[in-house]
């Protein structure tokens, strides 16, 4: 069995799921960061790159991919950017 490929909601890049951050939303509720990909519900994948985080935010990709009932909260956007900051060493490679 081969691992299913996921698609980045920021840039459309396809790769195995461990290359992405995973987010989940249940019934259109606010998304949660799901590093272990354990939650149920609709999922979204995002490259571990600042560029993709910003693209996903500005294009409302989370709202579309997860069929959110409300726009992303500023708290969630802050959380995304925090993930970025923590992986910043890889960001410019
Ligand atoms: Zn991407």
Structure, explained:
This protein has 93 residues and is α+β, with helices and mostly antiparallel strands. The chain contains 4 helices and 5 strands, in the order βββββαααα. A hairpin with a 6-residue loop joins strand 3 (20-25) and strand 4. Helix 1 (50-58) packs antiparallel against helix 3. The site of zinc ion has 7 residues, from loops.
Question: What keyword list fits this structure?
Answer:
binds zinc ion, 4 helices, two-stranded antiparallel sheet, alpha+beta, single chain, 22% strand, three-stranded antiparallel sheet, Hypothetical Cytosolic Protein, Chain: A, 93 residues
Number of strands: 5
Report the β-strand fraction as a percent range.
15-25%
What is the overall number of helices? 4
User: What order do the strands of the largest sheet run in, or round the barrel if closed?
Assistant: 4-3-5
Radius of gyration: 12 Å
Order of helices and strands: EEEEEHHHH
Q: Which structural class do you get from the secondary structure elements?
A: alpha+beta
- What's the CATH class, please? Alpha Beta
Mean pLDDT: 90
Specify the biggest β-sheet.
3 strands, antiparallel
Report the bound ligands by name, code or SMILES.
zinc ion
Quick overview:
With 93 residues, this protein is α+β, with helices and mostly antiparallel strands. Helices cover 33% and strands 22% of the residues. It has one domain (5-91): Hypothetical Cytosolic Protein, Chain: A, CATH 3.30.1230.
């Amino acid at each position: 069995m081969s691992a299913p490929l996921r698609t980045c909601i920021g840039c459309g890049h396809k790769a195995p799921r461990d290359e992405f951050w995973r987010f989940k939303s249940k019934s259109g509720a606010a998304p949660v960061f799901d590093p272990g990909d354990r939650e149920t519900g609709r999922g979204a994948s995002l490259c571990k790159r600042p560029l993709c985080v910003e693209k996903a935010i500005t294009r409302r990709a989370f709202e579309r991919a997860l069929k959110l009932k409300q726009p992303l909260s500023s708290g969630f956007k802050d959380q995304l950017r925090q993930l970025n900051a923590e992986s910043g060493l890889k960001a410019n490679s």
